[in-house]
Design a protein that fits this description.
The two termini are 37 Å apart. Strands 1, 2, 3, 6, 11 and 12 form a six-stranded mixed sheet that branches. A four-stranded mixed sheet has the order 8-9-7-10, with helices on both faces. It folds into two domains: 10-198 and 360-409, Periplasmic binding protein-like II (D-Maltodextrin-Binding Protein, domain 2, 3-Layer(aba) Sandwich); 203-351 and 434-462, 3-Layer(aba) Sandwich (D-Maltodextrin-Binding Protein, domain 2). The chain is globular and about 65 Å long. By secondary structure, the chain is an alpha/beta fold. Helices cover 44% and strands 12% of the residues.
């Protein structure tokens, strides 16, 4: 591979590390049969950095998507005949889904060797930290898990990913994937990733037996925050823990606030906040913060020790009644043996009916991978209808293609797929915002969870 500057700008490194701190979408600390790259393996890459402080010569502009720079050099290094696939999918349902992608790739490239570089732990934070170190050490995997929007920014600024537009053109993906999704994966007319599926982030899951035992009606459409808080109070009075939360991973707490906020401001208000057209000290943001603080009063006392998947399993086993989490939770619930609409139910987060909080996993390709031909097969097979179906059945997500027969999906996922096609969409900030803002938001949420100081909270967001 072509060498990357040994000392990347601090700005780019900070953005990469911000991704590590705010990595979400669905990683876990669960044991897995997947071959995993250990966090300690990054030490050799760290050793490659001599620790020199950046000099004045290092402070120039970083290459961006607008810079022509050097084109990817496919023939700079001959193909190794192997493809390293880097992700943080290691929980039970995630690993099953990843294996579906790998099997599809093997069918398309039967002679290729696969290095599964999945890194467990930290809800993806460990993997992002390893990846940041590998970028600094010029030891990139061929392809790695990323996403739309702000998740692409650090890699573009570091000039380490290549356009994959030709895959879309050759495979016909432009005609079968949502234009808005493709736009969120694009910069300056070039597309930089292929999506595996779309998760809905604004789900409220509940244990049916616990609600019934406490005399709480199962939530239905148009469920409001007032009803939610009243139900939490009723559960508390009955001695039932109201809300499961995997607060050991910051993204789970951030996502709880994000979902509450969406329910207050709506999709247009959400877009205005994302685009900087609305201040974060807006009265509706304050209202959402007030509700957030009240909801936190009913959180599982063990939340700080739990990962997101451990929290959803506590809902499955009857330890607590509700959980606000994206629909990757569905795969974990089914994988645990819980039965849809018997053991658990689900509803949109209060106030978010008709809105699909978009959380998308996608894969990018290293700019100068010697295995571009294999990477093209990987991305092409990933986007095929049968692969999208098998992957998303396991992952609990919705296929992003519009020509997939979703009748084989479980009832929840059929409904989610229909919602993806019909509802307004809101791109998650927790998962796909600009890394610098994500860091500020996550720190502000952490402090607010302790202080419940609304004014301090909204001012921190407004000043980001």
């Amino acid at each position: 591979m072509k060498a990357i500057p040994k000392t990347l700008s601090w700005k780019v490194l900070a953005a990469l590390l911000a991704l590590a701190l705010t990595a979400a979408a669905c990683g876990s600390d669960a044991e897995t049969t997947t071959t995993e790259a250990e966090v300690e393996n990054s030490e050799s890459a760290t050793d490659a950095d001599d620790g020199d402080e950046p000099t004045a010569e290092d402070d120039g502009d970083e290459p961006t998507a607008e810079d022509d720079g050097d084109e990817p050099t496919e023939d700079a290094t001959s193909s190794t005949g192997e493809l390293e696939i880097f992700s943080w999918w290691t929980s039970g349902s995630e690993d099953t889904a990843l294996q579906a992608l790998i099997s599809a790739f093997q069918a398309g490239a039967p002679n290729a060797d696969i290095i599964n570089g999945a890194v467990s732990g930290g809800g993806g934070a460990n993997a992002q930290a390893v990846l940041a170190t590998r970028i600094q050490g010029n030891d990139l995997p061929d392809t790695w898990q990323s996403g739309p929007g702000g998740r692409l920014t650090p890699y573009l600024e570091a000039d380490v990913i290549r356009p994959v537009t030709e895959v879309y053109d050759d495979a016909g993906f432009r005609d079968t994937m949502p234009a808005g999704l493709i736009e969120s994966l694009s910069v300056d007319g070039e597309i930089y990733a292929v999506a595996t599926g779309a998760h809905r982030g604004n789900n409220l899951w509940y244990n049916k037996a616990l609600l019934d035992g406490a005399g709480v009606d199962a939530p239905a459409g148009d469920y409001t925050n007032e009803q939610f808080l009243a139900d939490l109070a009723t559960l508390d009075a009955a001695g039932v823990t109201g809300l499961c939360l995997g607060a050991n991973q910051a993204f789970a707490v951030d996502e709880l606030f994000e979902n509450i906020l969406l329910g207050v401001v709506g999709p247009e208000g959400w877009a205005a906040l994302r685009d900087g057209d609305r201040s974060w000290d807006d009265p509706e943001v304050r209202e959402a913060a007030e509700i957030f603080g009240q909801v936190l009063d009913y959180v599982d006392p063990d939340a700080s020790a739990l990962t997101w998947d451990q929290a959803i399993l506590r809902l499955a086993d009857g330890t607590c009644a509700f959980n606000s989490m994206g629909d990757w939770a569905y795969g974990e619930l089914i994988n645990s043996g819980a039965v849809d609409n018997e053991d658990f139910g689900y509803v949109n987060q209060p106030g978010t009916d008709g809105v699909f909080m978009l959380v998308v996993d996608a894969f990018v390709v290293a700019k100068d991978t010697p295995n571009w031909d294999l990477a093209k097969v990987w991305l092409t097979e990933m986007g095929q209808p049968e692969t999208q179906l098998e992957f998303n059945i396991a992952k609990g997500a919705s296929p992003v293609r519009n020509d997939v027969d979703t009748s084989a999906l479980p009832p929840y996922q059929q409904g989610a797929a229909d919602a993806l096609a019909a509802d307004a969409t809101a791109l998650s900030i927790v998962h796909h915002g600009e890394p610098a803002f994500q860091t500020v938001m996550s720190e502000a949420v952490t402090i607010f969870a302790q202080t419940k100081d609304v004014e301090q909270f909204v001012q921190a967001l407004a000043s980001a």
